[in-house]
Specification:
about 70 residues; mainly alpha; 5 helices
Amino acid sequence: MQVTKQTIIGDILDADFNVAPFFLEIGMHCLGCPASRGESIEEACAVHGTDADALVEKLNAYFAEKN
């Protein structure tokens, strides 16, 4: 899976729920909320005041290593 800032969080979690801690460690504790699953990484990071680029990089590294 290739992740961008426009990738929807629910799609990422559906692809591999093991990435949930990546979101939790930056304060996104609302992963079970239907609204949060429909947000893009960029939208969620803006709300939580975190760096979307850093999260995208971390997620892509995880998915690259997994393959």
